[in-house]
């Protein structure tokens, strides 16, 4: 049965589902900026097409169909650059369904892995294994047969099995305990005192340092240590603020240039902790991201 969604009902749907739809678009695209743009487009398309809404489908399913296909349209054109997702956006607004924002399903390791999947496989994997839609629901959302959806899911799982042999139980998640907070405090202190050895003492043997946009990647404790020793050499240059992204600890880094008094926004740094040590340091030298974290673009001494 086709029904017309009135303005009040539509406004309620927007409030209820906006946050989890934005997270869904982020998983599909990897970009916070594009995720927000796509959610705006989703509700615009939904409003224009509200006369075709079929009562046999839930409003949530209807909105996810629009969102998923909007993301697929974009992915067919290009693969956006990965950005960190501020935790404050995950926690803002009405409480979304827990499965939609589970901490292991927005970690940077998870996000990097699912970007290995072609668009349709990625969509099926997210709908089935993250959001727990049934095979028939996922197929209906994508406008394909159940057999094709199951085949795409099987191929996606095979691609990811090398990273997580145990399936979802192995997906990465943060602890957020006191030991992790202490590690972040020591990381900040080491930078603000320009002491690379204090950072090196925190590193996992298999640590990976990546700096975007397109600066470089360093793998292993030895390589990262060399980079830290050459780059951390001026006390007072850094000021850092603890924050959180992708359900992981993060730091907003401000830099003071020679001859200046103010510290300017420089980079968002997301940390991955394993076995009490830093296993991943992902750096985005993009000051424009600070506003999304609710942070100013400069800091006075």
Can you describe this structure in just a few lines?
The chain is an alpha+beta fold and 301 residues long. The protein is built from eleven helices and seven strands.
**Structural class estimated from helices and strands:** alpha+beta
SSE string:
HHHHHHHHHHEEHEEEEE
Q: Regions with pLDDT < 50 over 5+ consecutive residues?
A: none
Summarize the biggest pleated sheet. Answer: 7 strands, mixed
Q: Kindly provide the radius of gyration, computed on alpha-carbon positions and rounded to a whole number of angstroms.
A: 21 Å
Please report the distance between the alpha carbons of the first and last residues: 64 Å
Helix content: 40-55%
Strand content: 15-25%
> Mean pLDDT, rounded to whole units?
89
> Which shape, going by the Cα principal axes?
globular
Number of DSSP helices? 11
Strands, count: 7
Task: Report on the architecture of this protein.
The protein is of the alpha+beta class. It has helices at 7-29, 32-48, 59-77, 87-90, 108-114, 119-130, 135-142, 146-161, 178-192, 196-200, 221-231; strands at residues 203-212, 216-219, 238-245, 248-255, 263-274, 277-284, 298-299. Strands 1, 2, 3, 4, 5, 6 and 7 form a 7-stranded mixed β-sheet that branches. Strand 4 and strand 5 (263-274) form a beta hairpin. Helix 2 packs across helix 3 (59-77) and helix 3 (59-77) packs across helix 7 (135-142). The longest helix is centred in the first third of the chain and has 23 residues, at 7-29. The mean pLDDT is 89.
């Amino acid at each position: 049965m086709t029904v017309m969604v009135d303005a009040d009902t539509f406004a309620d749907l927007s409030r209820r589902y906006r946050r989890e739809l934005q997270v869904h678009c982020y998983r599909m695209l990897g970009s916070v900026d594009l995720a927000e743009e796509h959610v705006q487009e989703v509700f615009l398309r939904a409003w224009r097409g509200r006369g075709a809404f079929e009562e046999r489908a839930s409003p949530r399913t209807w909105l996810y169909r629009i969102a998923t296909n909007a993301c697929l349209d974009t992915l067919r054109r290009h693969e956006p650059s990965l950005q960190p997702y501020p935790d404050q956006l995950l926690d803002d607004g009405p409480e979304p369904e827990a499965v939609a924002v589970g901490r292991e399903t927005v970690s940077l390791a998870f996000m990097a892995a699912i970007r290995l999947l072609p668009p349709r496989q990625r969509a099926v994997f997210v709908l089935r294994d993250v959001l727990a839609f049934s095979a028939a629901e996922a197929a209906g959302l994508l406008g394909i047969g159940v057999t094709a959806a199951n085949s795409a899911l099987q191929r996606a799982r095979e691609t990811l099995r090398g990273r997580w042999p145990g399936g979802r139980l192995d997906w990465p998640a943060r602890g957020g305990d006191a030991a992790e907070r202490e590690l972040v405090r020591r990381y900040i202190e080491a930078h603000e005192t320009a002491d690379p050895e204090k950072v090196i003492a925190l590193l996992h043997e298999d640590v990976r340092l990546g700096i975007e946009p397109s600066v470089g990647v360093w793998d292993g404790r030895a390589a990262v240590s060399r980079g830290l020793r050459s780059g951390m050499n001026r006390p007072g240059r850094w000021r850092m603020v603890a924050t959180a992204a992708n359900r992981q600890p993060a730091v907003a880094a401000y830099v003071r240039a020679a001859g200046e008094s103010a510290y300017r926004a420089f980079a968002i740094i997301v940390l991955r902790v394993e076995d009490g040590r830093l296993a991943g340091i992902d750096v985005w030298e993009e000051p424009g991201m600070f506003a999304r974290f609710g942070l100013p673009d400069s800091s006075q001494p």
